[in-house]
Amino acid sequence: MPWFIPALIGIGVGAIVALAIITIKKIRNWIQKNKTGIGKEKVELIQQKHDSGDYNVVVGVYKRPFIRKKYSGHETFQGKKMDDELESRFRGKKKIVMKVDEF
Predict the structure, then answer these.
(1) What is the pTM of this model?
(2) Which of the four, 22, 43, 49, 86, has the lowest number of CB atoms within 10 Å?
């Protein structure tokens, strides 16, 4: 077997593991692309843990989160786990609501 085949397999496995983690960086990038810049926007994150152990994190950007008048829509991020910073943001909660500029 050529020497580079195990290296390629290792790279592929690393890429799969990297995709399995929901990172705060991915969520921040999505928020920055989808905020309107109108001001007083809120970001709402809802954590869902499935029986399989996988996570969904649903993220939405709203002018007023309790009225649910959407300006930018929402996105669902899926993965085997969340990165440490995202875990610490939730601190055992299922939902976070905060100002876009503070996230």
Answers:
(1) 0.71
(2) 49
